[in-house]
Design goal:
single chain; alpha+beta; Arc Repressor Mutant, subunit A; Chorismate lyase; six-stranded antiparallel sheet; two-stranded antiparallel sheet; about 30% helix
Length: about 250
């Protein structure tokens, strides 16, 4: 998993292209390539680092995805910023990486409420109308960022209600707490990502303009029998969070 990125630090992966990216990051932050400057050509970087063009392009892509440079065919690579924008970056290729990401952030509890599912909530959670759920609202913070990166609503079944006092004392990732306390194991994660606009209430809690764009992430956690353990709905304002996924094509 890629570590969360802040303006203070950005760790490149321990790969050949990662080493090239790390060296270029040092050049940019150290002023060798100031904002607005044109970076060396691919051929020049190949010669400098003794790597292939594929490696150089992967390193440039790494910098481009983090908002540090822009690259255009026939024009070259230009420096946009000396440091990465202040935002969290999640690169998730497994559930383990998702849980690792959550441990890099800090949660602040807003409130806890018992809710009976109406038609809208039943559709959201995939449950029956009238079912009772315990809902937690928590702000997710990344170290070094003044504003929260997101607001997460999390619903758990009422039989897990005993974790409420634990969460009040020390907010943490609920699914991990449920597994530890009740001995259950979640086996499947379903995730839906879509764009959204922040209503006035969300905007106030997230310190963002009302009606501003955000990333909406809905997750359902299921046990081995396909029964839902937890559902969460998170809102992440534009510019504070990005989500990357890498997929490999298997040999055919």
């Amino acid at each position: 998993m890629q570590a969360p990125a802040t303006a203070a630090a950005l760790a490149a992966p321990p790969t050949r292209y990662g080493r090239v990216a790390h060296a270029l990051l040092a050049d940019i932050s150290g002023g060798r390539y100031p904002v607005g400057a044109r970076m060396p050509t691919e051929a020049e970087l190949e010669a400098r680092f003794g790597v292939s063009r594929h490696t150089v392009r992967a390193a440039i892509r790494y910098l481009r995805e983090r908002g540090l440079v822009t690259a255009r065919a026939g024009v070259g690579t230009t420096v946009l910023a000396q440091r990465p924008p202040e935002k969290a970056v999640l690169s998730m290729n497994s559930v383990a990486e998702l849980l690792q990401f959550t441990r890099h952030t800090r949660l602040a509890l807003v409130d806890v409420e018992t809710q009976r599912a109406d038609a809208a909530l039943a559709a959201l959670l995939g449950c029956d109308r009238g079912d009772t759920w315990l809902r937690f609202r928590m702000l997710r913070h990344l170290r070094g960022m003044a504003k929260p990166i997101g607001l997460v609503h999390t619903w758990v079944r009422p039989e897990f209600g005993a974790i409420a006092e634990d969460i009040r004392r020390r907010p943490s990732t609920l699914i991990s707490r449920i597994e530890e306390r009740f001995g259950v194991k979640f086996a499947e994660l379903k995730q839906d990502i879509s764009p959204a606009l922040l209503d006035a209430g969300l905007a106030r809690l997230l310190k963002a303009p009302a009606r501003s764009p955000a990333l909406r992430i809905l997750r359902h956690y299921y046990d081995r029998d396909g029964q839902i353990l937890q559902a969460s709905l998170g809102y992440y304002p534009e510019g504070r969070f990005s989500y990357n996924t890498r997929m490999r094509v298997e040999a055919r």
